[in-house]
Design a protein that fits this description.
Layout lengths: L1 H5 L3 H15 L4 E3 L5 E2 L2 E7 L4 H13 L4 E4 L14 E6 L15 E5 L4 H9 L3 E2 L11 H7 L6 H4 L6 E7 L5 E5 L5 H5 L10 E8 L1 E2 L3 E9 L2 H13 L6 E6 L4 E3 L8 H8 L8 E3 L3 E9 L1 H15 L4 E3 L16 E6 L5 H12 L5 E4 L4 E6 L5 H16 L4 E6 L2 H6 L9 H11 L15
Parallel strand pairs: 3-5, 4-5
Antiparallel strand pairs: 1-3, 2-3, 6-10, 7-11, 8-9, 8-10, 12-16, 12-17, 13-16, 13-19, 14-15, 18-20, 18-21, 19-20
Helix pairs in contact: 2-3, 8-11, 11-12
């Protein structure tokens, strides 16, 4: 494949550019520029087709010349995952946008893959509806959210965006338009496109469930100091059956200070200090983290549940009508090594302690404590071998707890040196899907776990 693409001479490259221009229109096809890259891999052409048929023609052109294609939405997560082996044509989905005309009370809505999520929400809100999709990436398209397997705080009650799919339209590597869902077969296969980074198909549109906008929302916040404390609080919250829409955690990476003295009249604090997981830990973060619960529903019901939650949490609790500043934001910045940790909620504290111990200092952790799915950040300045040793230690702890740690993004040197995914039980299924949907490995080759 790479040899075929590199053998295209200047006249051949101009011919492909001309063909792409015919398909997409003069303003929407060009040679790639410096910003057109995927996880550091530069593209050769950029095509922005105006509809599904034009996108299919781009894929058929790529197949005819044995060129690779990588879809791109808004590019908010273009550096997530492994770098593709080669990017010949970057297929920009920006014009595969729009919201289907549905009755006001329809239970679902069809959305073009290139539609910004915030535009979808703004349109639905005019009729008192919403998608229960709140992915953290600002400006992300719906297709990008699905392709990256991204989810926000509302996953606690409603599941991930992929869980809310009832139908999908996508293009195979050969340009065949496939519809699944709504009575059509293949939705289970189509769901594999979620998190595939465009390596199994090019999303054209997705149909998702909608719901009424909640009449009232309250955020109940409590300061927390240790992962063990978080564990106890989360278990108490879930046992109270308060039907939270989200249970989110934000733990600081501030430099450690000496542990606060345990008051004699605080038996809960004394019990935490004696817990085996605190052995050898003389320090705690200098700034308290936060455990925040979102409650949604009717005004009177939400207030009643909030009062019960305040009584349950007991200790510096605040109730607000707006979220904290870190809500729906990742703890990592560009250039960091970004991690996603998934573990049963009863073992989340063990995973966070393992990460801190391996890193030798507190690490910023944020995410859905009520589900055991959190994100963490390691400084981009860490050498690759140091990152590899931290990953090995954390994954060793998680393996016995049915958890996993995935590297979402990282500096190029780290990306090349470490195993981004760790053990993955779904690998055989992904490989079979790749061979079925893209047997010639033209779509984002190398982006999937296992390098295919």
């Amino acid at each position: 494949m790479a040899a075929a693409a590199s053998s295209i001479d200047r006249s051949g490259a101009l011919e492909i550019t001309h063909r792409l221009t015919e398909i997409c229109g003069p303003p929407f096809a060009r040679f790639a520029g410096p910003a057109d890259e995927v996880a550091g891999r530069a593209a050769r052409w950029v095509a922005v087709p105006g509809g599904s048929q034009a996108a299919a023609r781009v894929l058929r052109l790529a197949a005819a010349h044995d060129l690779t294609v990588v879809p791109r939405g808004a590019g908010t997560k273009i550096d997530w995952g492994a770098a593709p082996e080669q990017v010949d044509i970057m297929l920009d989905t920006g014009r595969l946008a729009g919201i289907g005309h549905e009755p006001v009370d329809a239970p679902t809505v069809e959305v073009g893959a290139g539609t910004p999520l915030r535009a979808v929400q703004a349109t639905l809100e005019r009729t008192g509806q919403r998608l229960a999709v709140d992915a953290p990436s600002p400006g992300a398209t719906l297709g990008g959210v699905l392709a990256a397997g991204e989810a926000g705080p509302l996953r606690h009650r409603h599941g991930s965006p992929c869980d809310q799919l009832v139908g999908v339209r996508y293009l195979t590597a050969d340009g065949e338009l496939v519809s699944a869902g709504g009575g059509a077969p293949g939705l289970d296969l189509a769901r594999l496109l979620c998190g595939s980074q465009g390596a199994l198909g090019v999303l054209v549109s997705a149909t998702l469930r909608v719901q009424p906008v909640p009449a009232s929302r309250l955020w109940v916040s409590r300061p927390v100091w240790t992962p063990l404390e978080v564990n106890d609080l989360v278990r108490a919250i879930l046992a109270a059956r308060l039907d939270p829409a989200a249970v989110e955690l934000d733990l600081s990476a501030s430099a450690p200070l000496p542990r606060r003295p345990v008051r004699a009249d605080d038996p809960a604090a004394a019990a935490r200090a004696r817990h085996p997981s605190m052995t050898g830990r003389a320090d705690v973060p200098s700034r308290a983290g936060s455990l925040v619960v979102l409650l949604e529903g009717g005004p009177a019901d939400v207030v009643e549940r909030a009062e019960r939650l305040v009584s349950l949490l007991d200790g510096g609790v605040t109730v607000t009508h707006s979220p904290p500043t870190w809500w729906r934001r990742y703890p990592f910045a560009p250039g960091d090594t970004a991690l996603r940790i998934e573990v049963p909620i009863t073992d989340l504290h063990a995973a966070v302690y393992a990460l801190r111990d391996a890193a030798g200092a507190p690490v910023p952790v944020r995410g859905s404590a009520g589900l055991g799915v959190v994100h963490a950040a390691l400084p981009g300045s860490l050498p690759p071998d140091r990152v590899a040793s931290i990953l090995a230690a954390v994954r060793g702890v998680l393996l016995a707890r049915r958890g996993r740690c995935v590297v979402l993004s990282a500096p190029a040197a780290v990306r090349r040196a470490v195993d981004l995914w760790g053990e993955l039980t779904t690998l055989p299924r992904l490989r079979a899907a790749k061979e079925h949907l893209d047997p010639h490995h033209r779509l984002a080759p190398g982006r999937l776990p296992g390098g295919f």
